[in-house]
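Bug #77: duplicate submission created two jobs. Keeping one. Sequence:
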Amino acid sequence: MPTGADERSRLLGGALCLGAILAAGLFVYGVLNGSYLALALPVAAVTLFVLGLVAWIGWTIATVPVDAEGDPLDAAGTGGAGGATRPDPGSEQDGPSGS
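Kept job's structure:
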């Protein structure tokens, strides 16, 4: 038995589908009539949406708190990217064997 929330969700989904069908019809009508706005408005809306999304992602990255973890790097330069995973020269770890 559907609840009130289920019924509202179905009505909202139906309204969204109907709105999308109507908007598509208006778009096709505008394109067939050679309307510049029929193409310019959707392109502008998508462009502004993507730029807004990029700005939101940038804002989120810029404002996230970052806590320093781990030991500071050695001043002598013995640490660094990939230094711990590099095998010692001359060692045969996972290398080809003589047999």
